[in-house]
């Protein structure tokens, strides 16, 4: 089996996995790389190869890529940059950005209509996103989540399933959250009302997919799905087939 990977950049060329391993080893010994990568040649190797698949030079991969729970992830800025430089992107623009909402719109060159997606502070609260960054920089966090979700929904051929850094951190935190067992019921806070927020069910999403009158509306539903649930979520897995079938029917 050939080990050719041909990672190339101005003044730098890696012609085989052996060369890439040597570079990763040298990078791991450097004092100029992030502390969390020092001594981790294997992680650096994964980042170099993943970056190559996305069209990044080795140094671009090290600057803009992270490894979370063994999986390489990208910053939201790099996700948008990769999409904008792709030949299939006609435009990818920020429509609105406040501490309460972020809205992006994009259009592929091979489609006649654009797709728009918004992420709001209410969605963030419902998803349990209450970390320090969300409290201190809500507008930036909403932009990151919205742009990454829209990018994956409309440009899966460009993104290749790569997650945005914040999303990956949240998924990892959810998977490693310890189970807390209370000896006695905990009384609710006094300001909690009887009203409850009902999350959309699988049947709700299937109905929305079936009701989509054209491909642009179907993509809007897909973008919202991607923004609401991470890859591998049971609802996303369950509606994947019906979504693809509805897309086939609309294109026909």
Tally the helices: what do you get? Answer: 12
Largest sheet entry: 3 strands, antiparallel
| Percent of residues in β-strands | 5-15%
State the assembly state of the protein chains.
Answer: single chain
Helix-strand pattern: EEHHHEEHEEEHHHHHHHH
Mean pLDDT: 76
Q: How does the overall form come out from the CA principal axes?
A: globular
SS class: alpha+beta
How would you write the strand order of the largest sheet?
5-6-7
Radius of gyration: 21 Å
> Can you count the beta strands?
7
pLDDT < 50 stretches: 1-11, 171-187, 189-197
- C-alpha termini separation: 40 Å
Helix content: 40-55%
What does this structure look like?
The chain is globular. The model is unreliable at 1-11, 171-187 and 189-197 (pLDDT under 50). It is 51% helix and 15% strand. The longest helix is centred in the C-terminal third of the chain and has 18 residues, at 234-251. It is built from twelve helices and seven strands. The chain has helices at 17-29, 41-53, 58-64, 76-84, 121-126, 132-136, 138-154, 156-159, 165-176, 202-211, 215-228, 234-251; strands spanning 7-9, 12-14, 65-68, 71-74, 89-97, 101-108, 115-120. The two termini are 40 Å apart. With 252 residues, the protein is an alpha+beta fold. The strands form three sheets. The chain has a three-stranded antiparallel sheet with strand order 5-6-7. Among the domains are: 13-68, no CATH class; 78-161, no CATH class.
């Amino acid at each position: 089996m050939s080990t050719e990977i041909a990672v190339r950049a101005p003044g730098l060329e890696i012609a085989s996995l052996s060369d890439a391993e040597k570079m990763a080893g040298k990078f791991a010994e450097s004092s100029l790389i992030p502390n969390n990568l020092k001594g981790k040649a294997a992680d650096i190797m994964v980042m170099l190869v993943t970056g190559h698949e996305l069209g990044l030079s080795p140094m671009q991969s090290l600057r803009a890529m992270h490894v979370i729970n063994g999986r390489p992830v990208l910053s939201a800025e790099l996700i948008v940059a990769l999409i904008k430089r792709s030949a299939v992107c006609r435009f990818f623009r920020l429509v609105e950005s406040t501490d309460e909402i972020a809205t992006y719109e994009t259009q592929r060159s091979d489609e006649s209509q654009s797709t728009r997606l918004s992420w709001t502070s209410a969605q963030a609260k419902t998803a349990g996103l209450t970390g320090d960054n969300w409290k201190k920089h809500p507008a930036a966090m909403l932009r990151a989540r919205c742009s990454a979700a829209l990018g994956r929904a409309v440009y899966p051929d460009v993104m290749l399933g790569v997650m945005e850094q914040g999303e990956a951190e949240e998924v990892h935190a959810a998977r490693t959250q310890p189970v807390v067992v209370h000896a006695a019921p905990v009384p609710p806070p006094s300001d909690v009302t009887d009203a409850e927020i009902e999350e959309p069910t699988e049947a709700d999403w299937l109905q929305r997919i079936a009701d989509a009158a054209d491909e642009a509306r179907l993509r809007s539903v897909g973008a919202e799905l991607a923004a609401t649930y991470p890859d591998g979520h049971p609802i996303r897995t369950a509606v994947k087939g019906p979504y693809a079938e509805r897309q086939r029917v609309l294109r026909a």
